[in-house]
Design goal:
Blueprint lengths: L11 E4 L8 E4 L5 E2 L4 E10 L2 E7 L8 E2 L2 E3 L6 H13 L3 E12 L4 E10 L10 E8 L11 H16 L5 E4 L2
The chain binds zinc ion (ZN).
The site of zinc ion has 8 residues, from loops.
Length: about 180
């Protein structure tokens, strides 16, 4: 952090404010304290006739690898709206009947992933601007060695094992 966004001062220092126990960026001129908190990433495991919709990334990081449609939640929207928006932006797909499925803390990168299961309305999906390909995969054909993120691999793993048991429950995990 180089400048205070409250007063414009460059006089910023990392220090532990009084009554706190963590290092924060503090403006020495106006006293403004900058708290940094985890970001929420949300998306959908969208299903059509037991097949799962995956997107191949057209952006870094992990260009060219497969992922579930997901992205950072925006201010002013609900989790479900964010998950549906990301599914539309990345896969031009509409989903409904969203069910909360996995909540995964990633403390090393200061993110929390919240993934929903959802039903695709139809098969009129297409590439959004951040995708090279969008495709439905059956559980036996998932591209396990070409997945972009461990949290996505874990979510798909849970889905496969839940699907085998025909019983889906909420999973709360941490990847450290
Ligand atoms: Zn300031």
């Amino acid at each position: 952090m180089n400048f205070c966004s409250a007063c414009g001062s460059a006089n910023i220092a990392l220090q532990i404010p009084e009554g706190d126990n963590k290092l924060r960026y503090v403006c020495a001129d106006c006293g403004c304290i900058y708290y940094q908190n985890p970001k929420i990433v949300t998306g959908c495991l969208a299903v059509w006739e037991q097949q799962i919709l995956l997107c191949r990334r057209a952006i870094e990081p992990r260009y060219g690898l497969w992922t579930l449609p997901a992205g950072f939640m925006e201010n002013g929207e609900s989790l479900e709206q964010a998950a549906q928006r990301e599914t539309w932006e990345e896969a031009q797909a509409k989903v409904n009947n969203l069910q909360l499925y996995t909540i995964t803390s990633l403390p090393r990168v200061n993110q929390v992933y919240v993934m929903f299961r959802g039903e695709l309305l139809d098969t009129s999906y297409a590439c959004g601007i951040e995708s090279l390909e969008v495709e439905l995969f059956s559980i036996t054909e998932l591209p396990w060695h070409k997945l972009a993120f461990r949290v996505i691999e874990q979510t798909l793993n849970l889905y496969c094992s839940d699907a085998a048991k025909k019983q889906f429950k909420l999973h709360v995990d941490t990847i450290d």
